[in-house]
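Reopening this ticket.

The earlier resolution said the output was attached, but the attachment link was broken on my side. Pasting everything inline this time so it's all in one place.
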Amino acid sequence: MIRPLTTVAGVAACLALLGGTSGAQTTTTRPAVTTTTTTTTTTTTTQLPHPFSPPTKSCVKDAKQAFKQCGGSSDPKCVTDFQSAFSKCFRVPDGVKCASSCIKKEFSCLDSAPKTRKTCTKACRRTHRLDRKACTLIADGDNLWGAGDASCLTTADANFDLCLFTCSQAKIDCHTNFTFCIADCPNL
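Inline output:
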C-alpha cells in the first residue's frame, strides 16, 4: 500500500529523485535553443465490402429463398444444400472455394455463438464478483480506483455492463466476419 509522504525528509528525497531540489535554487541563463520537429501520420482504413455483381447477387438471392423454403437452419440437409448453392454463386474455381470456406465458417460461428455467449457471461459474472470484493478491501485513504469505494463499485458495475454487452454481440460478430470474408471472393 502506498502511504503519503508526511516528513520533510521524505519530500526532499522524492524531489531529489524526480530532479527537483529541496533547498534554495540558483537561476542560470541559458541560450535559447530552437528545435524543429516534423511528424508524419499514416491513416489506415478498412474499406467496406464491395457489393456483389448483378449475376452473383441474383444467384445469392435465389439460394437464400430456397433455404427459407427448405426449412432453414433446423434441417442439416437444408444447410448443406444452401452452402453448396451459395458457393456456386461465385466464379469457378477460386470464388467457389473462397465462398464455401466463408459460408461454412459463418454457420460454424453461429452454431457456437450460444455456447460462446454462455461462457463469456459466466466470465463476466465471476470478474464482477471479484471486482466488487476488491472494492471492499480498499483501505481508508487509498483511492486505487479513483475516489474511493463508491467510485470503485461504480466502475465495477460499468465494466460488468460492458462485458455483458460484448458477450451479447457474438452472432453479430459472426455476420460481420462473414461480410468481410465474402468480400474477397471473386464474383461471377
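Reporter confirms the inline version is readable. The chain has one domain: 50-182. The helical segments are 8-17, 54-70, 76-87, 94-136, 149-168, 170-182.
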